[in-house]
Amino acid sequence: MFHARKVLWRTICSGSSRQLHVCIVGSGPAGFYTAEKMLKANKEAEIDIIDRLPTPFGLVRSGVAPDHPETKIVINQFTRVATNERSSFIGNVSLGSSISLLDLRNIYHVVVLAYGAESDRSFGIPGEDLLGIHSAREFVWWYNGHPDCHKLAPDLRSTDTAVVLGQGNVALDVARILLRPPEQLASTDIAEHALVSLQESSIRKVFLVGRRGPVQAACTAKELREILGIKGLHVHIKEADMLKTPRDEEELKKSRTQKRVFELLSNAATSPRSHPVPGQRELHFVFFRRPERFLHVDGSNHVSGVQLEKTFLQEDNSSGRRYAVGTGQFEELECGLVLKSIGYKSIPVEGLPFDHNRGVVPNTRGRVLSDTSDQAALEKGLYVVGWLKRGPTGIIATNLYCAEETVASISEDLEQGILPSTRDSKPGRKGLLELLNQRNVRYVPFSGWEKIDLKEKDEGSLRNKPREKITSWEELQNAASG
């Protein structure tokens, strides 16, 4: 690690004082796409991508399901960006503790925040703190070996039933991981602790609960087709839930994606099927229900079920949108595991304007606004991209177009003289590394990640896996410096 830092230090000393120094906080798809577009847009830009983790690639590493290796191929593209002579990755640097936003704005001409959403929305209903209730994000990080969640240890052995609240792609991901035969996961990059737990799992029934109907299901056809295609899986959907209203028909005509999803659900609901045999894995779609409270047995602090309220769709006259309204009718669904998949939430940092209701940074085309009521009140030199900019929506490729827009705003501001001139003294990478060294921050350069990468692949090859992820902070740091 010492040698790697010396190389990085020699590199910074050869840079031109006229360079545009850019710092991108967050090394997921939004961050890397922004870096890639910035390198092309400005030949004088020197770009540093920092991340709180010792590993780059964000949700491509910790969010994409292990049985979707094709989605992770984008890592090759991001690696080319990280190894470009005008860019660098500096990991294990946490915004807010290792370094402040004010520090970065003093050091760089441009700061782009791309650190995504690392918290969860909550229902705010009784019993939400019971044992056995986890967010889908935590569960995904657990089976993907994220160092924050490697000790999560969800109990998959004490119950045969799991309830997943939500019907988006993440909900389908966690349901699929619970229902797919574990031998099909053994040759993926799933974390070893998760594979062992799934091999010992007693879960045989998963209920996917949505507050709206099948027409409004938030997943994509590809994800839905995959889970419906699990061999030997018994799928149950009430045919009554598939009845469409004239308003539903209008909605389906406007969206090809929704139409395809509805057709898949409709086919699954009407296909001939027998009753599930003992031990068979089951997937139940539950529509028009929302959780009212989480249940537990007296004397226990572990979840034993969910009380659901039946809903119907009501139209907002002003917006034309339909939303779920409770009917006052309730039913209970027994379970021993609940996974809440109702959305990720971004976390603000000191000195950053933040819209707590929407969970985003107020911005106009990526330019951070200091006053939401005044579109001209800009935080000069400060930009945002990805989920912090638009909310936790879209797929990996969505971040490409999001990054293009933010980089276009940066380029416009440079041309119009809104940004600090490159003649203004900004130390950039040199200043960042000096500050990190002063504070004894054990940062990890890209060469450190390459050591982690090599070790994981070597360990994986012994188990016929693409990699065996290192899952603890200490082991990751040690591997990076090894």
UniProtKB/TrEMBL annotation:
Its EC number is 1.18.1.6. Residues 460-472 have a biased composition (Basic and acidic residues). It is found in: Mitochondrion. It catalyses: 2 reduced [adrenodoxin] + NADP(+) + H(+) = 2 oxidized [adrenodoxin] + NADPH. Residues 460-482 are annotated as: Disordered. Its cofactor is FAD. Belongs to the ferredoxin--NADP reductase type 1 family. This is NADPH:adrenodoxin oxidoreductase, mitochondrial.
